[in-house]
Every structure is written in structure tokens, then in C-alpha cells.
Amino acid sequence: MTFVRVGTADGGLYGRKVVFRATSRARHVQHAMRNQGNARMFRTAHAALAVALATTLACGAAAAADRDGAKPRFIDDPYPSTYRPIASPPVLIRNATVLTGTGQRLDGADVLMRDGRIVEVGQGLSADAATLVDGTGKWVTPGIIDVHSHLGVYASPGVNAHSDGNEMTSPVTANVWAEHSVWPQDPGFAAALAGGVTSLQILPGSANLVGGRGVTLKNVPATSYQAMKFPDAPWGLKMACGENPKRVYGGRGTAPGTRMGNVAGYRAAFIDAAEYLAKNTPKSRDGGKRRWWQGDGNGADSDQATGGKRDLKLDTLAGAINGDIQVHIHCYRADEMMTMLDLADEFGFKIAAFHHGVEAYKIADRLAEAGTCGALWADWWGFKMEAFDGIQENIALVDRPEGSCAIVHSDSAEGIQRLNQEAAKVIAHARLAGIEIPPERAIRWLTANAAKSLGILDRTGTLEPGKMADVVVWNRTPFSVYARAEQVYVDGARVYDLADPARQPASDFMLGHGASDRAGMTGGVE
User: Residue 72: what pLDDT?
Assistant: First the structure.
């Protein structure tokens, strides 16, 4: 099989040379908008070949598991979710402006929740024994989902004792799980809830090439992280490219010390994982052509792929190859994102989302064709060299191609409290560039698209019948500096209420702190 790569040796984009200059933001926008229409037809053949390769590579263990009706052992969970929805009566929100997360805006509409689920969205609804909420003048949206958070692993207060997010002992630490560092008493969870965040992915940091597994949580008060763990949500795999890994390890005189060292490190890790996957697949079901980087099956090809003893690191990487673990990659530059897409093609896995991606606007079409989301900041840029070429229209441009998946994320204990306003900044800067984005589209950056990247869109992220009743009632359009979340529901239970101090959760850590500032609140030591 022969591959034909479409591109130019001097860095042109799919056969067309494009020069982006940091000194002219307008030129960035013009070039990006023009090139979004040029790449699609050149990528079709390559995309088809990539899909075929990925399917062939991953079919062994995954197909066997499907036939047996069981999950592969690589994703066994000895720390399962103990989350249980809070019992609550039916709730009927009436006469609100509703953004469903599916691209619809419904004025003067009602939302009915019962038994933790969305029952119906429409007009003139009624329900016996339901708690009625007057939505006149208010807006209703799905709960906000943050796909990039370090709450609980870099908990508040920010002291060394709470620094549990980066296992900086090896460039590949796929064996560690972020959930084992989560401190449920982090006051940041309650602050995020007040901002309308109902679910969030907690990730390891970005010091390592492969940082470990991330976990998706329901944002509810709990004593253990298992009681917050989103039931049956797939894990995420955190990877990082660019400056961070090469700075951390190159500074110690060990690999990787360069970007080419980064890529060599990823490839070595996935070669080991592919061998491990093959050796742990029943021989009768492991037919098919072997890849160039696979051995002959006689013994181990490295000290990390013995095929006998269970290896936690290789379990995670094998799960990613199988498609059972969502791959999330910290990556800023467009050229590096393209390299990572090729790496994914080489080893047969799919990238769920690039995170931060300040240059994602340069390859918006490529991301859409790959089905890869861009989880991005509204306007962070320039704080290091790989972040220098960012523009404030980034998310708006990534959102333009058909099949795109733009996401507003936080990566910040402060930003997670105001993700709705981060999205509002994107809308404002897009308007200045001549791009009008209606609220019913923008809300998807915080809800449906985020859920898609986490593999939970079938259960949350939109206000559709049968889905989890994760709902926010806003005092006005959420895309306003004056917007506040008045009520937040998780699985139909009112877990936050701006007007009811009894429904404003506080961490145990905060009890007894700032007593003079807690007038009207009960509990704690006064």
C-alpha cells in the first residue's frame, strides 16, 4: 500500500503555502478563513486510508471483547463509581428561553425533569406533583462541562502538599490515574458549581509525554472521588507535546530534550503497547497482517512488553489503541498537532481532542475531517513561545467547518467559574471579525461538544428526553458579564441555588473559615 502525502516541503498547508505572521492578527484570520475551504478535498483519500489502518490495527482485542460481550481487561476498574443521583421530586421550569445544546433555541419553553432525567422540552407542559420554577425572563441550558480541569489534583489552597497533578519521574507515566490524586474537599468544586459546571474531566498535568489517565466527575459534594465518578464514563489519556516535556526532562540531561525526542518517545511507548496488545490477545483471534513495528511474536521485543505479567502503563496505552480510552493531547502549534494526527494514524488510535491549541485555527479543516475536537482558551496567548501565534478568533474559526467540534475549556481554578463569559468573549471577537455566532450554537462549546470529546454525549450535554437532567437556570443570557447561574441541577436534583444558602455547598475544609463573611449561612464553627 502506497501513501501519497499532500503538502510542501517548506511547510505549506496541503499544497498551498501559507505564511502566518504574529504581527498581523487580521492577516491570520483572513488566511485561516480562506484555507478552511481548500484542504477538504485533498484529505479524503488519506482519511480513508487512515481509517482502514486504524480499523485493522485495533480489531484484534476489541473485536474479541465485543464477541464475548465483555470489556477488555485493559479497562478493568477496581475503583468503580459509587455515585448515586440525589432523590428529588419532578421539576417543571416554565416559560424560559431554552438552549437545548442541539443547535435549537426555544423561546417561552418549558423543561420537565423527573427521576433524574429530561422528560420533555416544549411549550405548555404540565406534570402532577412537580416543583414549579418560573422561568420568565430566564435562560435554561444544559449543565456546563469542563474537559480540562485540575481541581482536586492541584487543590486550593495552592500549597506543595496539594501538588498532586504531575508525576514527573518519567516521561511516560501512563500507569498513573488522576483520580488517585483527587481531593474531593477542594473548595474549587463548589465554586465551579456556582458557575454552572455539572461535570468535569480531571487530568494529570502536562510535564510528561504521557501523563496518565484522566477521570470524568459529576460535580456533587462527596467524601470520596468514587462518589463523584461519572458512571461508566471512559477514561481520558493525557498526553503532551511541545515545550513542556522537553523542558522538564531535557533540563535533567535525559530524553526527551527536543521535539524530535518527544516524537521518538511516543513511538517507543506505542510500539511497546501494540506488542503488549498482540501478546494479550488470544492467538486464535489474532490473525491478520503484522505491522512493520511488530515483532514475530516469539518473546518480548523490549523489557516493557513481556506479554505475561500485567503492566499498568501498557494497559492504558493498549486501551487507547483499542478506542476504549479517549486520547486528549496538550498541544499548541499547528505543525505539532498535524504530527500527532499522523502518529495516531501510525498506531491506529483516535485523538478525541487537542487541548489549548492556540494555532488550531490554521488546521480547522483537518481537525474536522479527523473528528478531533479543539478544547481551547478564549484568549490566552503569548506566555511562552509555542503560545505566541494565538488569536482571539481561534475558537470561532475552529467552529466554522462542517463536522467541527470547538470547545471552551478552563485549565484554571478561576476560569472554570466563568466559562460562560469565556464563551461570550469568543462571540464578541468573532463579531468584530465579521462572524456572527448565535447563542444556540455557542452553547455547544460548553455542553454537547465537550460531552462528545469525553465519550458521554449519549448521556448528557443536551436537553433531550432520556438524558441526565443536568440543567442550569440563568438570570439572563449566559453570554453576558451580568449572567449568574441561579439554579443548578445534577440528575434532576437542585444542588445549587443562588437564593438558598442551604443549597450552596461548602467544602469541609472551608467550615469555620471566614465566619464573619458567612452571615446568613448555617453550619460550621462560628
Answer: 82
Cα separation of 319 and 299, whole Å? 22
Q: Report residues of the chain scoring pLDDT below 50.
A: 1-24, 38-67, 285-286, 292-293, 297-302, 305, 515-516, 518-526
* Residue 466 Rama label (left phi>0; alpha psi -120 to 50; beta): left
Q: CB of 243 within 8 A of CB of 257?
A: no
Q: Are 201 and 236 in contact (CB under 8 A)?
A: yes
- Per residue, the 3-state secondary structure of 397-448, as one string, reads HHCCCCCCCEEECCCCCCHHHHHHHHHHHHHHHHHHCCCCCCHHHHHHHCCH
The pLDDT value recorded for residue 227 is 98
Q: pLDDT value at position 271? A: 98
The three state secondary structure string of 146-205 is EEEECCCCECCCCCHHHECCCCCCCCECCCCEHHHHCCCCCCHHHHHHHCCEEEEEECCC
DSSP, collapsed to helix, strand or coil, labels residue 77 as coil
- β 351-356/373-376 pair status: parallel
Return the closest-CA partner of residue 207 out of 165, 146, 157.
165
CA 116 vs. chain centroid, Å, equals: 24
In the chain, DSSP finds a helix count (H) and a strand count (E) of 12, 16
Task: Please answer whether residues 237 and 210 qualify as being in contact, where contact means their C-beta atoms are separated by less than 8 angstroms.
Answer: yes
d(CA 111, CA 135): 10
- Scanning the structure block, which residue is given the C-alpha cell 492504558? 316
Parallel, antiparallel or unpaired: strands 351-356 and 326-331 = parallel
State the pLDDT at residue 522: 41
CA gap 54, 178 in Å, rounded: 27
* Distance separating alpha carbons of residues 389 and 382, to the nearest angstrom: 7
C-alpha distance across the termini of the chain, in Å: 74
- pLDDT at 300 (0 to 100): 44
Encoded amino acid at 396, one letter: A
Q: Burial code of 324-357, b = ≥16 C-beta within 10 A, e = fewer?
A: bbbbbbbbbbbebbbbbbebbbbbbbbbbbbbbb
Whether a cis peptide bond, with omega within 30° of 0, leads into 256 is yes
Look at residue 13 in the predicted model and tell me its pLDDT: 33
Residue 13 to residue 32: CA distance in whole angstroms: 11
Alpha-carbon distance of 155 to 23, in angstroms, equals: 37
Q: Which helix (H) or strand (E) holds 290?
A: none
Angle between helices 40-68 and 334-347 (to 10 degrees): 40
Quick one: pLDDT at residue 102? 98
**Residues in a beta bridge with 330:** 240, 355
